[in-house]
Amino acid sequence: SRIGMLRDGIRAYVSVRSRADGAWAYSIGRASPFIPFDVPEVLSALNAAEPVSRGKWGGGNLIGGSPRTHGSALHPSDVARIINGVVNSSPVARLSNASIAGAPAAFSCG
Fold first, then answer.
1. What is the pTM assigned to this prediction?
2. Which of 8, 14, 24, 40 is within CB 3.0–4.6 Å of 72 for a Cys-Cys bond?
3. Of 32, 26, 34, 30, whose CA–CA distance to 82 is shortest?
4. What is the pLDDT of residue 95?
């Protein structure tokens, strides 16, 4: 649960589960707007990589996810690579790198 993640010091997360149809279902988020994990920018990058026929990643400033109807065609390793690219290119993340380096993050597969 998100409360358990917060208790464990996790401030940003990606959760993934495989769907019966072979697609993937993802949720991504951060604990507050002060956490240097730009959810809208991540969603934009994932939309650029997702086949248009599957639908769009969507959400808000704190939480987002993969297309609901068709799920995502993106493999978890591709999603991790895309998210890491966004995080590593973020000026906020670079400025906050010292505080991020010691903070736990979550990427769960279920």
1. 0.80
2. 24
3. 26
4. 42
Within 10 angstroms of residue 4's Cβ, the number of other Cβ atoms is 8
Q: Kind of pairing, strands 12-18 and 106-109?
A: parallel
User: Which tokens sit at 76?
Assistant: 């978890």
Q: What is the DSSP letter of 36?
A: S
* Predicted local distance difference test score (pLDDT) of residue 2: 67
Rounded to 5, what percent of the chain is helix, strand, coil?
40, 20, 40
Question: In the structure encoding, which two tokens stand for residue 31, read together?
Answer: 């604990």
Written as six digits, the tokens of 23 are 């697609």
CA distance 23 to 54: 10
- One-letter amino acid for residue 35 of the chain: I
Residues 61, 69: Cα–Cα separation, whole Å: 22
Residue segments in the chain with a per-residue pLDDT below the cut of 70? 1-2, 91-110
- Across the beta sheet with 58-59, the strand order is 58-59, 63-65, 24-30, 12-18, 106-109
